[in-house]
Design goal:
Blueprint (H helix, E strand, L loop, with lengths): L3 E2 L17 E8 L5 H4 L5 H7 L5 H22 L8 E3 L5 E3 L7 E7 L2 E7 L4 E7 L7 H7 L2 H9 L5 H19 L10 E3 L9 E4 L5 H4 E5 L6 E8 L4 E7 L5
Parallel strand pairs: 1-12, 2-12
Antiparallel strand pairs: 2-6, 3-4, 5-6, 7-11, 8-9, 10-11
Length: about 250
């Protein structure tokens, strides 16, 4: 599962490389590099309706750009018009392509102007991203949602690393439940993940389903300072390729 960063890709005509069996492609995107007005025409009515529910214009714009880039990337993989894509949603809200539009699996997350997208031709996956907020007091939240083991480990982390450790844990848990497509119907305290900064991302244990550690593998995602992200995919025999989509970096 070696990650090999690729060169930035131009914005106007997104050109995704072939998505081969056994591969997972992960894209990092600066949402602030794109205008919402240029992408909103390719969104479906339900996506626009959801965008309009956001109170703050920046949140609305980031949602539109995130969905628009998702459509452009999928359109490139599938050689179909971005506006033609149709999404369905699993019972717990995980999106997937309509039956007649291909079998590419995908997941996305965005926070504070950054987005990550994961794509696979042959396995379920989940990705989560968080911006590390300075001064954020996560230990009370951890007591409510993390497993006993994770809470204990968090108390041993140096004070200057606690925020990063908290968000490591949170993104790894979210990526796992997103990969399973179950949302918060799977309590976060029923499984353990690693969280110490510098420690490899891993699903350590699912207390009710021991076989889960062999079904899924987990990896951290390299991002600019201030962000943490995690990727979870089925199996352990996949190859990760990482790409950056940001016209401002060219």
């Amino acid at each position: 599962m070696n990650s090999k960063p690729e060169s930035p890709v131009a914005d106007k005509d997104v050109c995704a490389p072939p998505l081969n069996a056994g591969e997972v492609h992960l894209w990092r995107v600066n949402l602030n590099a794109y205008a919402a007005e240029s992408l909103s025409p390719i969104l479906a009515d339900d996506e626009i309706s959801r965008a309009d529910r956001f109170i703050f214009p920046k949140d609305r714009d980031h949602y539109i750009v995130a969905r628009g880039i998702l459509r452009k990337l999928l359109a490139s993989y599938l050689t179909i018009g971005a506006a033609e894509l149709q999404f369905s949603y699993a019972e717990k809200g995980k999106p997937f392509l309509a039956e007649n539009q291909g079998s590419v699996r995908f997941n996305l997350a965005h926070s504070h102007g950054m987005a990550v997208y994961a794509f696979s031709p042959d396995r379920e996956l989940g990705v989560d991203l968080e911006f590390i907020r300075e001064g954020f007091e996560g230990e009370e939240i951890a007591q409510q949602f993390f497993s006993p083991r994770e809470i204990e480990v968090l108390t041993t982390v140096a004070a200057n690393l606690k925020n990063e450790a908290f968000f490591n844990c949170w993104t790894r848990k979210e990526a796992y439940i997103k990969a399973r497509g179950e949302g918060l119907s799977l309590p976060l305290n029923e499984f353990d993940v690693t969280l110490v900064p510098g420690e490899a991302a891993a699903l350590l244990c699912n207390h009710k389903e021991p076989g889960e550690t062999t079904r899924w593998s987990m990896q951290s995602v390299e991002l600019p300072d201030g962000y943490v992200a995690a990727l979870v995919a089925e199996g352990h025999n996949w190859r990760l390729k990482t790409f950056t989509l940001d016209p401002l970096s060219e």
